[in-house]
Design brief:
This is XRE family transcriptional regulator. By secondary structure, the chain is an alpha+beta fold. 26% of the residues lie in helices and 32% in strands. Strands 1, 2, 3, 4, 5, 6, 7 and 8 form an eight-stranded antiparallel beta sheet that branches.
Length: 209
């Protein structure tokens, strides 16, 4: 009886999962080494592992044995389980379809500034919260170049034209333009040049402990 070739490789999923695990372990090893200001050469001398092997581990190009991981854990003074946390962490994605963003009023919002929150992700490991907004300004919108809040903000202009103030500088924004800035300085639309105007505002700030 002739064998029918499989259209999918049944081992592919497990191979990909193993590769992701190797990369996750490598990232933790590198992060811990750098955090403690240990060079690869120093770690090689402490563990007895070659510099080449350590490089392969940190780059996720090899699957270290449990013995090797225990050796690295002892050298870095971390529990061996810490190498697997990045692999076990739940990765979050937020999909917001067109027109489904939550309309809200942020603190200090001026008249006819429409804010639609497109998602919200906070990471316990990175300690950072990210909030993307779609902001729409109409003919009746007020200008208010004095918003101030913590974190970093990125603006990507989609439609219309505005002159945007940050600190003491005014930036003319047109479709396709990006403005990235420290949100602690006074900022906001100073002149509504061409309306309606729409832009993405992505704000990231430290997560409260």
């Amino acid at each position: 009886m002739a064998k029918i070739p499989l259209s999918q490789d049944p081992h592919r999923a497990s191979e990909v999962r193993e590769k992701v695990l190797e990369v996750a372990i490598g990232r933790v090893v590198r992060a811990q080494r750098r955090k403690q200001n240990i060079t690869v050469a120093d770690l090689s001398e402490t563990t007895g592992l070659s510099i080449g092997m350590l490089s392969k581990i940190e780059n996720g190009n090899t699957s270290p044995s449990l013995t090797t991981l225990q050796t690295l854990a002892n050298a870095l003074s971390v529990p061996i389980t810490s190498f697997f946390r990045g692999f076990e962490e739940v990765r979050t994605a937020v999909h917001t379809k067109a027109g489904e963003g939550v309309e809200l009023e942020r603190e200090g919002t001026r008249a006819n500034h429409q804010y639609n929150l497109l998602g919200h992700i906070g990471s316990n490991t990175s300690g950072v919260i990210v909030e993307p907004y779609m902001i729409t300004l109409s003919e009746k919108s007020d200008v208010f170049p004095a918003f101030q809040h913590g974190g970093i903000e990125t603006i990507y202009m989609l439609e219309g034209e505005i002159d945007y103030l940050h600190g003491d500088t005014v930036y003319p924004l047109k479709p396709g333009d990006t403005l990235f800035f420290d949100a602690d300085a006074p900022h906001g639309p100073k002149v509504l040049v061409k309306l309606p105007a729409r832009f993405l505002s992505i704000i990231s700030y430290p997560q409260s402990t």
